[in-house]
């Protein structure tokens, strides 16, 4: 079974045991954290920074023209409604996106279901996961990019927002904004070792760093016990 992306109108958000073939069982299942999704995939901080820079520019221009800091601040305050609407829309979209997404690890594969208007399902057999990485955030959430074979690999834009950033030519699926990501990494690593075999140690690290290839688990530049 190769990695494949399917799109259907009737795909349920969450995988259930009843859908799985005989002998396959669910080991782990989670939805992404919507707030971390807003901060990461939808760049909420950058939106706030953009408005801040524009507000400072407006204050400076008004002061230059009128000599009044108070009037400059007053003019910049007119941007607040637009900022509020923009932030609210991003947060709402992140929440809906997270609710329409689930990551499911079974004894044979990793299933990603996502999509609002057109639900999609990506099946990644455990045997086709070459290696993975873990990037932890301060709040315990994390991102887990997966390196898979080229056959049947979806494009970057088909996977977004669950594609590793800037890997346009060789898209890598990424479990983004995973709650309790360290524990999720341990569970996925154990499943990879059990399915693929091998005795090498399994580690988790920073996804932004280069990492040695491992056929049996997670790789990273700053290992942590798994």
Provide a count of the helices.
6
Query: What is the second-level CATH architecture of the largest domain?
Result: Roll
Q: What distance separates the N and C termini? A: 28 Å
Largest sheet geometry: 5 strands, antiparallel
Estimated radius of gyration: 21 Å
Number of strands: 11
Provide the helix percentage: 25-40%
Report the order of strands and helices: EEHHHHEEEEEEHEHEE
Binned strand content? 15-25%
With strands numbered from the N-terminus, the spatial order across the biggest sheet is 1-5-4-3-2
CATH topology of the largest domain: PH-domain like
Helix/strand structural class: alpha+beta
What are its keywords?
single chain, 226 residues, alpha+beta, PH-domain like, 2 domains, four-stranded antiparallel β-sheet, 6 helices, elongated
Task: Report what the structure shows.
This protein has 226 residues and is α+β, with helices and mostly antiparallel strands. The chain has two domains: 4-32 and 102-225, Roll (PH-domain like), CATH 2.30.29; 39-96, no CATH class. Helices cover 35% and strands 21% of the residues. The protein contains six helices and eleven strands. The chain has helices at 34-40, 44-66, 69-77, 80-99, 156-159, 181-196; strands at residues 4-7, 26-30, 102-106, 109-114, 120-125, 129-132, 135-136, 142-148, 174-178, 203-204, 224-225. It has a five-stranded antiparallel sheet. Strands 6, 7, 8 and 9 form a four-stranded antiparallel sheet that branches. The chain has a two-stranded antiparallel sheet with strand order 10-11. A hairpin with a 5-residue loop joins strand 4 and strand 5. The two termini are 28 Å apart.
